[in-house]
Design goal:
The chain starts with a helix and ends with a strand. It is an alpha/beta fold and 220 residues long. The chain has helices spanning 3-23, 25-31, 49-58, 69-78, 141-145, 162-171, 196-208, and strands at residues 39-43, 61-65, 85-88, 91-93, 97-104, 128-140, 151-156, 176-181, 216-218. It contains 7 helices and 9 strands. α7 links the parallel β8 (176-181) and β9 (216-218). A 6-stranded parallel β-sheet has the order 3-2-1-7-8-9, with helices on one face. Strands 4-6-5 form a 3-stranded mixed β-sheet.
């Protein structure tokens, strides 16, 4: 697939993603209070659909983190002239340093559409290749949080690394208004059986602390 063909496919994917955002009631509800002074962290920004939607609707300040090099290139170009957005070619977890980012098991190269889908720091994630990976920089979530006095919304789609991130978000919940997160391992919505125990343990902890559907919201 040529770079031009990939771009057209990404544009089509972008339009479909926008339609999904429009019908995601929880997402729409959480962004309603946002304004131009609000701070949003987009962890696992991919090509920037969520960031762009928030910018168009609310004009908030967005800090977008994406480790996949192709996704980040598209993300950075998309917002190159928008001072409201800061983009970072970083994975986010509970450590800082270099790590392998495992690519989609069907990805055959950087011009393949699957290259931008589902890449993960975890090789046990069910739809990634254990042998096809790239090296990426990882930033500790606590270092990122330390840069802000208050955050209005954190959206997390970290392809399994959310289980390393969320405990630090909970520790800092006094300065975070809301968290919206896709939890891999939820048996009702995806096939990541390897992450099922992580999902159940986190869900139990969130509910016990009265944070689930109160401060923390699951992205479906």
């Amino acid at each position: 697939m040529s770079n031009k063909s990939l771009l057209y496919k990404l544009m089509y994917s972008n339009s479909k993603a926008y339609q999904q955002l429009l019908i995601n009631k929880k997402f729409i509800e959480l962004i309603k209070p946002l304004d131009q002074k609000s701070i949003v962290l987009d962890i696992g920004a991919n090509i920037g659909n969520v960031s762009n939607f928030i910018l168009e609707k609310k004009g908030s300040k967005v800090f977008a983190f994406e480790p996949n090099k192709l996704c980040f290139e598209i993300l950075a170009r998309r917002f190159i002239d928008d001072s409201r957005v800061k983009t970072f070619n970083l994975a986010v977890s509970n450590y800082s340093g270099l790590s392998k980012l495992y690519l989609h098991q069907k990805s055959k190269g950087i011009t393949d559409f699957n290259y931008i889908e589902s890449s993960s720091l975890k090789n046990e994630k069910d739809n990634v290749s254990e042998t096809n990976s790239i090296e990426v920089n990882v930033e500790h979530i606590s270092k990122i949080l330390s840069k802000f006095s208050y955050i209005d919304l954190i959206k997390v789609d970290a392809e399994g690394s959310e289980y390393e991130i969320i405990p630090f978000l909970i520790d800092n919940k006094n300065k975070i208004k809301n968290v919206l997160c896709e939890l891999h391992g939820n048996p009702q919505y995806n096939k990541n059986k390897e992450l099922y125990d992580d999902y159940q343990n986190l869900l139990s902890s969130l509910k016990k602390s009265n944070l689930y559907n109160n401060w923390f919201y699951e992205w479906y």
